[in-house]
Design brief:
single chain; alpha/beta; 9 helices; 46% helix; binds S-adenosylmethionine
Length: 225
């Protein structure tokens, strides 16, 4: 699993170009992925939500827009990323490690994490910490990369490992951070494997939905009542 010191440093280095690089490398699809997740979240009408590994705040901003009555707390352990979230309009930001959140048990009725869990040093510990801060019956949504099945798999992997790091290197000057990205996607559990992981960490009713031919997936699960 990823090394926390490397991850925090890598995001600090790319923070200023992160949003632009995302839009270019995904051809704008990252905006639609976060909107799709935010729509699922807003259907549950959350009152107090924690967006974990919020980074530059794209998902937190979309949830704030769709759920004006919800208190959204955006957390991340990289202050350079979170500074952008605050400047872009996220109302509440807090520098915090997802593996040791500074909140009491059952503080939130909803938790989200977009493209963050994959970067954490210990997936089960992170998921159990998310469960801890959720109240019974509270919902967790995870959005992250997965690998497409079938004939798209090979060309996508070629893009991921050979093309993407070159373009990202030009955009951000930090090619190594994007070489790390491909490896992290390869080793991240997806689909049924992620559902099993969620169940083993104490979540109920885990489900997954593949978006854009399986390039990303949305997972949903609930802390038992
Ligand atoms: C790819 S960015 C995703 C940012 C944002 N959620 C988005 O959708 O664009 C991953 C973020 O995870 C954060 N992160 C990784 N491990 C973390 C941890 N243990 N605690 C808090 N944040 C973490 C990084 O600092 C980075 O901002």
């Amino acid at each position: 699993m990823p090394d926390a010191v490397y991850v925090r440093d890598a995001f600090a280095r790319i923070a200023d170009r992160y949003v632009l690089a995302n839009h270019v490398l995904s051809l704008g699809a990252d905006v639609l992925w976060r909107k799709s997740m935010a729509a699922r979240v807003s259907d549950k009408r959350p009152r107090r939500l924690i967006d974990i590994a919020s980074g530059t705040g794209d998902l937190a901003l979309e949830i704030q827009r769709r759920c004006p009555d919800c208190e959204v707390v955006a957390t991340d352990f990289c202050s350079e990323m979170l500074d952008h979230a605050a400047k872009r309009g996220v109302r509440r930001t807090l520098v915090a490690d997802a593996l040791d959140l500074p909140f009491a048990d059952a503080s939130f009725d909803a938790a989200t994490v977009a493209f963050g869990l994959r970067n954490m040093a210990d997936y089960p510990s992170a998921l159990r910490e998310m469960r801890r801060v959720l109240e019974p019956g509270g919902h967790l949504w995870i959005l992250d990369f997965s690998l497409p099945e079938g004939i798209l798999r090979a060309p996508y992997r070629f893009y991921l490992h050979r093309v993407l790091p070159r373009i990202a290197g030009i955009l951000t000057g930090q090619r190594d951070a994007y070489e790390y990205l491909g490896g992290s996607i390869e080793s991240f559990p997806s689909g049924k494997a992620m559902e099993r992981l969620l169940a083993s960490c104490g979540f109920e009713q885990p489900s997954s939905t593949a978006l854009t031919f399986g390039v990303v997936s949305v997972y949903q699960a609930m802390r038992p009542r």
